[in-house]
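Retro notes - structure team

What went well: the batch runner handled both jobs without manual restarts.
What didn't: labels got mixed up in the shared folder, which is why I'm recording both outputs here explicitly, each with its sequence directly above its tokens.

Job 1
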Amino acid sequence: MAGIGGSTAAAELGALHPWATPAPAITRDERRARIARARTLMAGAGADILIVGAGASLRYFAGLAWGATERLVAMLLPIAGDPIFICPAFELGSFEAGIGIDGDVCLWEEDERPSALVADALRAANATTLAIDPALAFLFVDRIRRDAPHVTLIDASPVIDGCRMIKSPAELALLSQAKAMTLEVHRRTARILDEGIRASEVIRFIDAAHRALGSTGSTFCAVQFGRSTAFPHGLPQDDILRDGDLVLVDTGCLADGYHSDITRTYAFGDVGDDIRAIWTIEHEAQAAAFDAVRPGEPCEAVDAAARRVLERAGLGPDYRLPGLPHRTGHGIGLSIHEPAYLVRGDTTPLAPGMCFSNEPMIVVPDRFGVRLEDHFHVTETGAAWFTAPQPAIDDLG
């Protein structure tokens, strides 16, 4: 078993150091270009002004890493002129320390309605159509609608997704770093495995290893042994590793806000020929999905390519088990799951700069599951891997 077992957590953590060549952060010039692109898309959608709430999209346009809460923090982007930011007055210092672009700031006190500030800004801009960030809470949307009844509200998904789906070279570099860090953690995780180790011990190691490489730790972590691998997101229990178990580890981290999300499935001892056969089919399905990527083809074509491999092997069809119970992949960037999606029904044309997971998991109900997950970005001629796929069930590469 190449690279599986034979070491300790202390030894592997001791060999890790902060990432030697971190990718550069996103610049103000790139954020200005994103805003210019958003305005072009706003014009095409017939929007006078765009509202973007706290979360990944606000970080994308304004560089502000701010989680959504019941207090409205948002950017109003008019079709022309400076952005306008809505911020609680007591948060101004934190806001100013985190913002990455220039703009006017409108403050509201705790006993005031921030939606009234939005309505005032809409009137000042003579706006009649407001494009709403699809991630903005209904609570805020409903209050804006009440305070600005003269304004038509439309979905801003074509604007926001139209910008965020296509990654720049700087974004690709940050995504590449995050994924390389997590792949290194995967390799070292496999080395610490020993019979009797608990999944919770492995999860703690993975978080510590991500931190040792310079990230803020794991953004999520799933460690599953044996029968638990048959459940795509595991079971509410702390698995104990036994000889002959299949191991599934799914985890990720951040590089300046950009996500990794990589899964490895491998044997701890002799797992049996039936499991090895399914692992091989999974490997082939992942390769088929990758090979199906062509600019201009619909996203759903990639999902269909993976499912054809499974169906030829007698699995499925569709979402039937044994087989693939979920989509083949998802977009990834500042959100771990974001449009577009590699699934039947998503006809979004593939385009250079799009980034996706490739994870056509095979589940054999109540027995085991195999998920191999790597990520690729679309190129002018096809696809390019961020991380090399796992070469064998006994070898993480």
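Job 2
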Amino acid sequence: MADRFDVVVIGGGPAGYVAAIRCAQLGMRVACVDNWRDGKDQPVLGGTCLNVGCIPSKALLESSELYALARTQMAGHGVRLAGVELDLPAMMAHKERVTRDLTSGVATLFRAHDIAWVPGTGRLLAHRQVEVTGHDDAKRVLAAEHVILASGSSPTSIGVAPLSADRVVDSTGALAFDSVPPRLGVIGAGVIGLELGSVWRRLGSEVVLLEAQERFLTMVDGQIAREAMKQFTAQGLDIRLGARVRGSRTETKSVVVDYQDANGDHTLEVDRLVVAVGRRPNTRGLCAEDVTLLLDEWGFVHVDEQCRTNLPGVYAIGDVVRGPMLAHKGMEEGIMVAEAIAGHAAQVNYEVIPSVIYTAPEIAWAGKTEERLKSEGIGYRVGSFPFAANGRAKAMSATAGLVKILADAETDRVLGVHMVGPHCSELIALGVMALEFGASSEDLALTIFAHPSLSEVFHEAALAVGGQPIHVARPVRRSARAG
């Protein structure tokens, strides 16, 4: 006989574990099935994000930036360091400690909320039953009133650059190098490629990123993308746009990549190659053959605005459904679904989900870009302000970049916030709140911000929408009419 629960969640990543916790808080009996195992082959919660994604990558980004600062910038602050050395094993050990602390924290939360953690691979059966195949191949069946699919995603592979055990790796492998490769190639200059490339560039690699798109960071506001490209190029990242990889071969001590761009055919030889061309939803094998779960042509589960699938009582959230593959997006969907199951009104505002690239400088945005506003025929005004004119940024020696605010030309309502610079992953929350609350640029301009602080750049950008920034001599005010 199947074990019965109110809710069974398949997947213990950010979307799944948050959904499980919120369901438990709302008084439901919950089980969470997850097949992740750590480097010691032990079951562990947290999914890709906590184990080989968001968290370990940010740990390495932080550590590598500290190393670079110690080598190149501390002397300018009057701190002279002699013989700065890289201890890569210690850096990796720090990454592992951070990861272990957070994954064990999720397990503690499960115990606190009396959530049944079921290690193994979950497969949806008919009538809201879930078959679990344990790591010992033993099978059991769980039955539920509601099932939440949160099985996450995996790195996309490409035939022209097949992975190898050592030389050609995906994002997971690039977080675990045992030495700094003298020459590193990265296929893909998107979020993952840039973050990984930044880590190893700061640690000493010569990094070449091959990007098939002709425009850098197509999802980012054009002005912000151009500024970011300038900063990354100055750091020594070699970003080659319009570069379409045609093939690769692994030699004894290197990898040779053949690619083509507007100037013809080229060959690149590197010591290691990272394939970072995106991610695909983990929906293969998620359901039994007689379960008619509706998927789209890319393998994503089809859902409505509240993440209901075509199957009664079955929901899907996170990376397996439409929208950006972001942990915080999946978390909010998990909370929404839990509330909906409990009979409460709930929704996610997909128009104001923030996105961040954790390079240095950081890139962050929320809302609409200039390009989108133009394509939709929406009249708007632009206000921007550089970090170079901000006292706190100067004190930090972090003056690259700017904050840009887009406001409706008629109503003055904020439509988009875009930024590149220091700590933009934190500053973007100001923009998200402005968008969520329907603020005008005047509302922001009339708000008092602490001095000196980086947030003043956001304030000045809001002032600039109306042509009244204080700390630039000649403000530039731009607008575009509808149509």
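One thing worth noting from job 2: The chain has 13 helices and 23 strands.
We'll revisit the folder naming next retro.
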